[in-house]
Write a structure and sequence with these properties.
Layout: H1 3-30, H2 33-37, H3 42-48, H4 54-69, H5 71-78, H6 85-88, H7 97-106, H8 109-119, E1 128-131, E2 137-140, H9 145-162, H10 168-183, H11 185-191, H12 209-219, E3 239-243, E4 258-262, H13 263-269
Antiparallel strand pairs: 1-2, 3-4
Helix pairs in contact: 1-4, 3-4, 4-5, 9-10, 11-12
Length: 280
């Protein structure tokens, strides 16, 4: 086998392996394997276990989610006959799947992207943050004219406040810092006075703010689930506070009975087969 033949063989093998991986990931979603293993979903599993890049994790997450929603797409992807599924994810539905799958198979990539953008202009937008040096990253985002006007207005106000030229980076830093100071649960918890002792709230579902602040401080406003390997989830989105021992079973709102969980782990720990396995 010469190098040309070897390259063709490896490309075909790569596509087939990718299709098989998508199939496996779909089954793992349906059988709720990720959360049982300690991961919130396709992205975190691909990133932490398969050690894929963020771009690869995002690719598999989008294709898997779309395939679960659109059976025709799932068949095309997992059979290996469609390798550009992510290009049509923004527009494909069960009703139009055949149409878009055919386009994905036959059109050149640029033409396919134009066709998708003509139906869903938002699909052409690419948002990313990528490192460009040891201390800097590049932010790429498409803004509406209204949002751009708001950004420029804040830039003007920040320049007026500081009496100096202000870059877009300075403007974003000022806005983000103010937002976090006002809305970040962890910052609020750190500012709050520590409670001398747990408040007697047995039987009440509403958590007193001092109790909630204490839990947020302790868990650092991150999912505190620890898997069997001793790895903490640390998810920072969709957080909820969970009672280790439910109130209905005599549990209380004591800090020691509370834990911060992401919605995936919180949902799973209430499942009859996983109630105790996730709460550590």
């Amino acid at each position: 086998m010469n190098l040309h033949e070897r390259a063709q063989f490896l490309a075909k093998t790569h596509k087939q392996t990718e299709a098989e991986l998508v199939f496996v990931l779909i089954q793992m979603v349906r059988q709720k394997v990720f959360v049982a293993l300690g991961y919130t979903g396709v992205f975190s599993y691909c990133q932490r276990v398969l050690e894929f890049s963020e771009a690869q994790c995002s690719y598999f997450q989008r294709v898997v989610n779309a395939s679960i929603e659109v059976r025709t797409l799932e068949v095309a992807v997992t059979s290996g006959e469609l390798s550009r599924a992510r290009r049509i994810v923004p527009v494909v539905t069960q009703a139009n799947a055949t149409h878009w799958i055919e386009k994905a198979k036959t059109l050149p990539q640029r033409e396919l992207e134009k066709a998708v953008a003509s139906v869903n202009p938002e699909a052409a937008k690419v948002e990313r943050i990528r490192p460009v040096s040891e201390k800097q990253v590049e932010l790429r985002v498409t803004l509406s004219h209204d949002v751009a006007d708001l950004l420029r207005r804040v830039q003007d106000l920040e320049a007026q406040r500081t009496k100096s030229p202000v870059s877009l980076e300075d403007t974003l830093k000022a806005v983000l810092s103010q937002h976090l100071e006002k809305n970040d649960s962890l910052k609020k918890a750190l500012r709050a006075k520590p409670i001398a002792k747990d408040l007697p709230e047995e039987g009440k579902r509403a958590l007193p703010k001092p109790i909630k602040h204490a839990v947020v401080r302790r868990d650092e406003n991150k999912c505190a689930h620890i898997d069997a390997r001793g790895t903490r989830c640390n998810a920072t989105r969709w957080l909820e506070i969970h009672h280790r021992l439910p109130l209905s079973q005599g549990g209380s709102n004591a800090v020691e009975n509370l834990i911060t969980l992401c919605s995936a782990h919180h949902s799973h720990c209430h499942h009859p087969d996983g109630q105790q396995s996730l709460v550590v």
